[in-house]
Write a structure and sequence with these properties.
mainly alpha, 2 helices
Length: 56
């Protein structure tokens, strides 16, 4: 059950990070902070399944 929750959470993080990428280009100021937040969430969404599914 923990692996399923990790996979669903990872997909949600991926979707939020893609939304932040698009939202960053619509802002008048602070685009860099929103874009970096998207990059960090994207990295976390790829790291989480590797870490969870790599354990035995």
């Amino acid at each position: 059950m923990g692996r399923v929750l990790a996979a669903v959470f990872s997909i949600l993080l991926l979707l939020v990070s893609m939304y932040l990428f698009g939202f960053a280009f619509q802002l008048d100021s602070g685009q860099g902070f929103v874009f970096i937040a998207g990059v960090l969430l994207m990295s976390l969404s790829f790291f989480l399944p590797i870490h969870v599914f790599g354990k035995r």
